[in-house]
Specification:
By secondary structure, the chain is mainly β. It has 1 helix and 12 strands; from the N terminus they run E-E-E-E-E-E-E-E-E-E-E-E-H.
Amino acid sequence: MKLLFKQRFFSWFDSYDIYYEDGSTAYTVKGKLSWGHRLEIYDPNGTHIATLNERVLTFLPRFQIYIGDVYRGEIVKEFTFFKPSFSIDCNGWSVEGDFWQWDYQIKQGAFTVATIQKELFRWTDTYVIDVQNPADALLALMVTLAIDAVKCNQK
């Protein structure tokens, strides 16, 4: 299953539209005013389903995962020199990026859960998320949001 992740061009806060391959809306992401990034995820009907909240004043970027209002874990950027790496403490996933920080793989052991590819030469940040199991789509989206927030903070 593929999701197309597009940042909105005109927006005061981080806002994204997430589409299925057929062009229908999968999720809407709205940034909220807070210290650090706070991104709320809504289903196509406008129902709030998840939140990604950046913890501030930490050595390395950390994002808390909430499904509904229930805390599920954290996405943590690991300290590396050449290739970006993230860990997710709620399900044993790890994330490895390439040297240019455009392509990522989400792994669970040796199994590839999803791949994330940044599309170049676009007006806004655009990613393609290819998820093996549709049940993992929401968490893969949250990983992509965390990666994009870290890259935004580095600029």
